[in-house]
Structure formats: structure tokens, C-alpha cells
Design brief:
It is a single chain. This protein starts with 6 loop residues before the first helix and ends in a 16-residue tail after the last helix. The protein is built from 18 helices and no strands. By secondary structure, it is an all-alpha fold. It is globular, with a radius of gyration of 23 Å.
């Protein structure tokens, strides 16, 4: 699978300008990407099992309660999803620079943020849940059961959010097999406990919550075990290093930028659904079905975007411009091949996929009318998705935030003009236009990102060690 190294790369290795670990190959990209793709493929399974298990109770309310409770908690945890992305770029750069003390300290910082955020959600659970039910109201029975579910599961919030930091730290060091192991363990344990607690012990909705609570804490524990090499270094608890002002502020700035970018992206999709709801129930349902195509594409592409994060981050930390460019090109090439493959698959099998996800004849018919947009979406979004990974690795979070803001404004402008004129066609065109705009605007900033790799690296503040 690996092509021969170029003459320039061979000479660089021979001269010691590059270490063998810094040479980016197709094999290295796939070693990072494939475990992430497999891990993502397991995510929908857990939700299906949760629903299926409570469905055996023969009542509608428990199904709705678990679904509503899971969505509310997932939305609260998602707010801190920046922790994974920010941790990847910063850790990969520290590793590329050879600053293993900072690599260890970054893990501690991430865990502190995860624990603090989780504790805040636990302390504020009553007002948070009250506000959530006002935004997503259900029947009294559903809300009561959902409250029972959330009151148990919320106690694993520190673990669930800390897993973002652990996952980012492992990805930065290209240890995606460990990430896959964590996901498989959590999902597998959750499924087994679901079956035992709900079907065996008849604990109902509370049994599902306890199963998730135990799986999330055990997943965090397994993740810490995979990070155990860092805990052999004194730097992980060197509080002067962990709370170093400039580094802490830099981490906060990076994470804040990513949070704003992610909230704009979420606002785009929420507004997409809201505008779709104004076009009728059938159109809304069809759009919801078609959005699953985007989710499938994102899951498939995540592996290569994560590979870009790790490889670009390490190259940026080592100030190796040629390695950075090669990492960006190889991961993007695999990402493009994946997107083209997805587009072909949707063109050939999209109708069958729609039939699996919807049984209503009207919804199926409308979804098929708009299926061409799903064929175009992977290619239209390829540059945006891959450049996100590249810019995360380089910690160019301000560019990500600003280009997302521009793309969001373009989406709103297109929607205001096209939706009244073209209806749902205009809505989909607006969304695809935002994808293209984000790819173009980030692409225009890429030369500046590469130029940063020519800047001299910051001096090491600590001695070298082995952090895993």
C-alpha cells in the first residue's frame, strides 16, 4: 500500500532532518483512520439496543423517555466536545516538538476541565433539566420517566466529558486502536447491562440509565489505563506546569474558538430543521431521513480527518513544513476517495437506504425527490471536513471560527432568497452552498497555516521524557 519515499524524503531521513516516524505514508494514515471508522460504526448500535430493550416493556412512554433523556444529556455533553478537538491539536504539537512534559500536563488539564464541567452539570441539573423540558416538552408520563433516567445518568457526566479529553490525547499520539477499544468496551458493556437490568431484573428506564452510568465510568477508567504512561511522569501533577498561565490561556482560547464554531454549525442544522418544518410534516420527515446520509458520510470521513489532526499537529510542532503538507495531502486524498465512494453508493443504493429508514409512502417519495442532493453532499463537503481536521491539528482555531461565521452568513443569505422561491430545493442548496463556502474560505487560509510551520519552534520549558 505504501509508495516509495521521494528522493528528497530519503535524503532528509539519511541526514537526520526527518526521523522515520515523521515520514507520512498511506499505511500510517490508514493505521490512524480505520479504527476511528470502525469505532464510529458502533455508535448507532447502542441507541438501537437502548430503544429495543425498553421497547420490550410493551409501552410507548419508556421509549420516549429514554430517547428524550438521552438527547438532552447528549446535547449538554456536546457543548464540551471542543475538548477533544482542542486536545488533539495541542497534544500533537507538543509531541512533535518533543515536549513530553507538556504532553503529560495537557492530559491533566483536559481531565480537570472534564471533571469540572461534569460537576457543574450535576450541581445545576435541576434548572438545566427544567429548561430542557420546556424546550422539548413531552407528556407528563414521559417527562417523569425521563427525569428518573437523567437523575441517574447525570452522575457520570464527569466521566463522559473527560472521555473527550482522553480520546483527543490518544488520537494526537496516533493511538486510535485504544480509542476503538474504549468505544467497543463501553458499548459492549452497556448492551450486556441493558439486557440484564431491563429484561432480567425488570428495572425499566432506570436500568437503562444505570447501565449507561456504569459503562461511561468504566470507559473513562479504561481510557486512563491507556494513558498510564503519562502518569509515570511527575509532570502530570506538576501544578506549576499544569496551571502555567500562558499555556492555560492558549488552551482556553483554542477551545473557545472551537466552541463558537461548533455552535454556529449546530445553529445551521437546527435552523435547517426549523425551516423544513414550515414546509410540511412529510417534507420535515424526509429531510430528517436524508440528514442521516450526511451523518453516515461524516462517520466515514472522521477517520481521515482525525488522521489529519494528528499528523498535521505533530508536523506543526516539529516545524516540518514538507511533512505537514504531505500529511494534509495524503489524508485529504483518502478523504476525497471516501467521499466519491459515498456519493456513488448513495446514487446506486440511496433509494433502498431510504426504504430502510422510512415506511411511510409519502416520506419515501419526497426523500427520493431530494436524493440527488445527498449524492452531491459528500463531494461538496469534502474540502470543509478535511480542512477542519487540518486546521484543528494546527490549532488554527480562530480561522475555523471566522470561516464558519462567513459560511453561516452565506447559508442564511442563500436561505432567505432561495427558500421562498424554491422551497425545500432552496433549503438544500443553501446547506450545500455553506459546505462549499467553508471549504473555499478555509482553503484560502491554508497557505498561511503552512507558513506557520516555517516559524521557529518555542523553546522547551521542561526536560524530555517518555509520555507514552
Amino acid at each position: 500500500m505504501d509508495e516509495p519515499l521521494s528522493d528528497a524524503e530519503v535524503r532528509a531521513v539519511d541526514k537526520g532532518a526527518l526521523e522515520p516516524r515523521d515520514v507520512v505514508t498511506h499505511r500510517r494514515v490508514l493505521n490512524i483512520a480505520v479504527p476511528i471508522v470502525i469505532s464510529n460504526a458502533t455508535v448507532p448500535i447502542l441507541g438501537s439496543v437502548d430503544t429495543g430493550v425498553v421497547g420490550q416493556m410493551g409501552l410507548a412512554a419508556p421509549i420516549g423517555a429514554v430517547g428524550l433523556g438521552a438527547i438532552i444529556l447528549s446535547a449538554l455533553y456536546w457543548i464540551f466536545g471542543f475538548l477533544r478537538m482542542g486536545t488533539v491539536g495541542l497534544t500533537a504539537q507538543a509531541a512533535g516538538h518533543g515536549d513530553d512534559a507538556e504532553v503529560a500536563a495537557l492530559l491533566t488539564r483536559g481531565l480537570l476541565i472534564g471533571a469540572g464541567a461534569g460537576a457543574a452539570i450535576i450541581l445545576l441539573q435541576l434548572p438545566l433539566f427544567w429548561a430542557s423540558f420546556r424546550l422539548s416538552p413531552g407528556s407528563a408520563e414521559v417527562e417523569g420517566l425521563a427525569q428518573q433516567y437523567m437523575a441517574i445518568r447525570v452522575w457520570s457526566a464527569p466521566a463522559a466529558i473527560s472521555i473527550y479529553a482522553i480520546t483527543g490525547w490518544l488520537i494526537a499520539q496516533e493511538r486510535t486502536r485504544a480509542v476503538l477499544a474504549i468505544q467497543l468496551w463501553m458499548n459492549g458493556l452497556n448492551i450486556v447491562l441493558d439486557l440484564w437490568f431491563v429484561l432480567g431484573l425488570d428495572w425499566g428506564v432506570q436500568g437503562v440509565a444505570i447501565a449507561t452510568f456504569l459503562s461511561e465510568w468504566s470507559g473513562a477508567a479504561l481510557g486512563l489505563w491507556f494513558c498510564r504512561a503519562a502518569f509515570r511522569l511527575p509532570e502530570w501533577r506538576n501544578w506549576a506546569q499544569v496551571f502555567d498561565g500562558p499555556r492555560w490561556l492558549h488552551m482556553m482560547r483554542v477551545n473557545t474558538d472551537i466552541l463558537i464554531r461548533s455552535m454556529l454549525l449546530e445553529a445551521m442544522f437546527v435552523s435547517f430543521l426549523f425551516m423544513g418544518s414550515g414546509l410540511g410534516d412529510v417534507t420535515l420527515a424526509a429531510n430528517q431521513v436524508l440528514l442521516q446520509f450526511l451523518m453516515i458520510t461524516a462517520f466515514a470521513l472522521d477517520g481521515f480527518a482525525y488522521a489529519a489532526e494528528a499528523l498535521v499537529g505533530r508536523a506543526m510542532g516539529a516545524r516540518q513544513r514538507a511533512v505537514l503538507r504531505r500529511g494534509a495531502l495524503l489524508t485529504s486524498g483518502w478523504g476525497l476517495a471516501t467521499c466519491v465512494g459515498m456519493a456513488i453508493a448513495f446514487a446506486l443504493a440511496g433509494g433502498a437506504i431510504i426504504d430502510l429508514m422510512a415506511t411511510a409512502t409519502g416520506v419515501r417519495a419526497v426523500a427520493r425527490d431530494y436524493l440527488p442532493y445527498m449524492v452531491a453532499a459528500p463531494v461538496a463537503g469534502w474540502a470543509a471536513w478535511m480542512l477542519d481536521g487540518i486546521f484543528i491539528g494546527a490549532t488554527r482555531s480562530r480561522d475555523m471560527r471566522n470561516m464558519m461565521a462567513i459560511s453561516f452568513a452565506i447559508y442564511v443569505g442563500f436561505a432567505l432568497v432561495l427558500v421562498p422561491a424554491l422551497g425545500n430545493h432552496g433549503l438544500w442548496l443553501s446547506l450545500l452552498a455553506s459546505f462549499v463556502a467553508r471549504g473555499i474560505t478555509l482553503g484560502l487560509r491554508y497557505p498561511s497555516l503552512e507558513a506557520d510551520a516555517d516559524a521557529p519552534p518555542p523553546p522547551l520549558r521542561q526536560g524530555k521524557a517518555t509520555a507514552g
